[in-house]
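Researcher: We are triaging several targets before committing to wet-lab work. For this one, the compound of interest is zinc ion. I'm pasting the protein sequence and the ligand SMILES. What I need is the predicted three-dimensional arrangement of the protein with the ligand bound, expressed as structure tokens, so it can go straight into our comparison scripts without reformatting.
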Amino acid sequence: MKDIFVEVVFNLPINQTFSYRVPQELSRVQPGMRVLVPFGNQFLTGVVVMKRDRPGFPNPKDVVDVLDELPLITEKMMQLTRWVSEYYLSSWGQALFLALPRGIEEAVKEKVFLLKDLPDDTLTQRQRELFLVIAENPGNTKAYYRKKFGYSSFYNLLNILKKKGFVYFEQEYIEAQARELFRQFVHINEDYPQLKEKFPDFLKYLKRRPEIDAYMSERLGQDILKSKFLEETRMSPPTLAKMCRYGLCQQITKKVERRIHFEDVEEPKIVKLTDEQTAAIKAVEPNIEKEAFATFLIHGVTGSGKTQVYIEVLKKVLARGKTAIILIPEIALTPQTVRRFKKVVGDEIAIFHSKMSLGERLDYWHACYEGRIQCVVGPRSALFAPLDNLGLIVVDEEHEHTYKQTEINPHYNARDVAIYWARMNNAVVLLGSATPSLESYYNALNKKYALIEMKKRIDDVQMPAVEIIDMRRAKKVGQGELRLFSQLLIDKINERLSKKEQVILLQNRRGFSAFEQCSECGFIPICPNCDISLTYHAHGEKLQCHLCGYTIPAYQFCPNCGGRQIVYKGTGTQRIEKALLEVIPHARVLRMDRDTTRGKRSHETILQAFAEGRADILLGTQMIAKGLDFGRVTLVGVISADVGLSIPDFRAPERIFQLLTQVAGRAGRRQKVGEVMVQTYSYSHYAIQFARTHDYAGFFKEELNHRKNFRYPPFVRLIQILVLHKDFMETVNKTREIAHKLKAPLAKYAQVLGPAPGIIQRMNNLHRWVVTLKLNPQTDPTGKITKSILLQKLGSALEKKKKNQQILVDVDPITLN
DNA sequence: AGCACGCCGACT
DNA sequence: GTCGGCGTGCTC
Ligand SMILES: [Zn+2]
Ligand SMILES: [Zn+2]
């Protein structure tokens, strides 16, 4: 008999497959199944990506176990994850594990145990230290102690402790974190009515407790959760045991599926679709019927009824027996939205959200896999749900940055992957937004996507006026911190408070970097090469561009008007609250920011308190801009649009435009027309002016010009290489070295910018510098060439965490690093 | 990611 | 000569 072999990938940053021999008894293994295999001195769960009759490596080890009966990963999903890994430069394994439920990895790892109670003087200082760390909590994995003790010399010292006979290692099986849930049930046997007659003592018992006889008789053949059974019958456990002995019923263990229950909503009034909605659905319909791939961009103002369009299209897709994925930014995953979809889909819906337990995720994943789910709703990870026969992917609020995964590999953008996945499945994509990303709208204008415009609001409520307060001229309420408020804004707030109405005040999160802005004319120093604001460095009194590195001395006077320059770093919500209370002492203010929402449910608590009218003013960062509308809020104030505008990112104007538009959309819901007031020193900035007039097309045109002139997306592709290092000089040197290494080989294909300091210059004790690549759309339109050169030149250094250093690659960064 | 190995300077 | 800090390279 000839041996068979498999190629396996792991959820590790190693971009290669590993060969294993398959023992005879495990020959049922197929690509897409999980296997437990030896790897180094441990055993890991990997996924088989290929079955073959020759080994890809001399003398491979044996597969220890096959963990699945059927492949968990389809051939198509293999292709998708492989593409994701190649496009975003991660390992295949890391991309592939996106398509599996979390926490399903079994492993065998070495754990450390003590042989002696106390350290003695045969140990050096460092060895003693490590011994004590282990003694604190023996029997854990090496990685556990390494994290506690620190990386440096860890293995060295640990092995010395072993050699000296203080500790020993033992391989221990570590089970998967996500487990199926089993519960005890009571099964009532069918022949209960006849059988009970044989047991006089039981009949006597029934005489006393006739309700039990009724209970049992009504449930013949049924399985009842044991705890429920005991509670409902108020029977004692010994009695139950006796009944089981008599064969009247039996106790069984059954797998139960964890499901999240939503209360049903009252029947919604029959919705009459608007003309625009009808037209939108009609535009999409042919592709649904032909099952032909296409991407539709629905540009619909807030309140134009995009969600109803999704729902109507979803109905058609489901009616054809196809499945659908609805992607929604986590923050918008509110019960109200979810219920609307639930209403349409019924029980065959799976809703994923970040607070779900591993077990719930596991059960829903299996429900999808087994074909019991027709529609998945969730944030970006829901895209990889194992649905068969996919017909539709909706990406709501497609411009949202949360679709891009930033912390962990692969750094994928679910919106873009969705389009690729839909193409593979001949499915239809609906991208929806009131403020589409420049990229998407540009694609729509170029006929890559079909454009659907929805300009009217269902309720016919006018978009509220957005009033821009020119802080250069406006009268302030006072000096010092009180210069934060214009008299106009404070007057308006007071007016609302006297009418017992509520106010929301928004402040941008503090910028990571300081910037200069003239308080007379609003001038912000901009890099002449990159069109982004220059970052102010107190050290050396200089201004520096964090893309190309351009540096000039900081201005003492405004070059525009000669005015006195101010250095401004944005004001935290805490200081704003203090100043606000100085101006309006009787105001009841709720603050919602990083500090006040640390607790698990603090979010909801604050929002609820505000909704119940226990405060007049809700003051917070952008996080309160979305996903909520309060009936009694009639004024939304933006304290300063300047912090947002000055973020050194070419998308800063786009983000401000989106924020202001969104705020306006929210403020103007319900019957009352709200009012939006925006304070800014950059009164004439195009993003602010176009937001004031709700003019997306105008904004798009102007912004597109900037992008074209300074060569940014959608005209070029960007790739950023981020160097993290403990030591500042090393960071700079390493970044310079990388830029230098890449310049010559990339000369034809990409412009190499930098080295330059990152937007966040220091995080977790690591300095951050970046090299930015602008790919040449003529010579390397897909980016494949640049990526292969990148891999070739930086190769194994990428993504590999070293003691003090790490190098990350971000393909299509959505916020500059 | 996790781990071993080997080099080298520091310190018995 | 050991210890321990650190970079490099392998894991089928
Ligand atoms: Zn000025
Ligand atoms: Zn620049």
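Researcher: Any quick observations?
Model: The pocket of zinc ion (ligand 2) is lined by residues A 527, 529-530, 545, 547-548, 550 (CB under 6 Å).
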